[in-house]
Amino acid sequence: MIARARRYAVVLVGCGEPDGRVSLVGSAGDAEAYLTGIEMRWDDRREGGGPVGRAIRRGETSVTKIGEASFAPWRDRARRFGIRCVVALPIITARDVRYALAVFSTDARQVWGHDLTILKQLAADVAVAL
Q1: CATH number for the domain that contains residue 124
Q2: For strand 22-28 and strand 8-16, is the pairing parallel, antiparallel, or unpaired?
Q3: Which residue of 10, 26, 28, 97 sits 20 to 30 Å from the alpha carbon of 1, by its own alpha carbon?
Q4: What pLDDT, on a 0 to 100 scale, did the predictor assign at position 3?
Q5: Quick one: which H or E segment has residue 3?
Q6: What distance in Å separates the CA atoms of residue 129 and residue 1, rounded to the nearest whole number?
């Protein structure tokens, strides 16, 4: 629903696995094929420095434009799908932060204000469901 409601190409929920990988729990959006075959991690490897990995590892919201160095492993693929900015939010369950909600936008502007407030509430709602 959120993928259709805004300018978001794809939305995902990822889970930080014990081996450092991020597995896909669910996704939606017109650019969902972007996720096929990409590696996301939350450990200290290069792929763990991306927005989803940082959200899980640090428990903090991460807003990343695809031109930033931390997004280098996925930049070319993101451009092919029109993705220009990613917002990743930690999903904090009663036990810990092992999940993240990520929103991939075709708009290069960073997500601010009302949109960010809605996404934080959505992440909190998903935490309750998990």
Answers
A1: 3.30.450.40
A2: antiparallel
A3: 97
A4: 47
A5: helix 2-5
A6: 16
Task: Domain count for the chain, please give it.
Answer: 1
- List the beta bridge partners of residue 109: none
The predicted pLDDT at position 5 comes to 54
Q: Mind listing the pLDDT tens digit for each residue in 10-20?
A: 999 999 999 99
Q: How confident is the model over 61-101, as pLDDT tens digits? A: 988 999 999 999 999 999 999 999 999 999 987 777 799 99
Quickly count: other Cβ atoms within 10 Å of residue 40's Cβ. Answer: 24
Domain that holds residue 46: 2-129
User: Is 1 in contact with 103 (CB distance < 8 Å)?
Assistant: no
